[in-house]
Amino acid sequence: YDIFSKFGPVRQIRRGCKSDNKGTAFVVYEDIFDAKKAVERLSSVNVGGRYLICLYYHPKKTSLHSGQ
């Protein structure tokens, strides 16, 4: 929260817990413009010896009618 809240109110931070997203965190801001600032300013920042890669989350589109 200390790092990400500098850019605006954070609604939630969740860690990825599946093997394919280990080391991933999902940060949800109250305002999209705060998220935009965080992505722009935190990408490639070194935190604890690791570099942040900040991206916007794009959920996979699922079809409600698949298989019909």
Write up what this structure looks like.
This protein has 68 residues and is of the alpha+beta class. 16% of the residues lie in helices and 22% in strands. It has one helix and four strands, in the order ββαββ. The chain has a two-stranded antiparallel ribbon. Strands 3-4 form a two-stranded antiparallel sheet. β3 (46-47) and β4 (50-51) form a beta hairpin. The longest helix is centred in the middle third of the chain and has 11 residues, at 32-42. The N and C termini lie far apart (44 Å). Residues 62-66 have low confidence and may be disordered.
Helices and strands in order:
Elements: E1 10-15, E2 25-29, H1 32-42, E3 46-47, E4 50-51
Summarize the structure.
By secondary structure, this protein is α+β, with helices and mostly antiparallel strands. 16% of the residues lie in helices and 22% in strands.
Protein traits:
16% helix, two-stranded antiparallel sheet, 68 residues, alpha+beta
Beta-strand content estimate:
15-25%
Give the overall form. globular
| Unreliably modeled segments | 62-66
Task: Report helical residue fraction.
Answer: 10-25%
Structure classification: alpha+beta
Largest sheet: 2 strands, antiparallel
Taken in chain order, the helices and strands follow as EEHEE
Number of distinct helices: 1
**Average pLDDT across residues?**
85
Major sheet strand order: 1-2
Rg calculated over all Cα atoms: 15 Å
Number of strands: 4
The first-to-last residue Cα distance is 44 Å
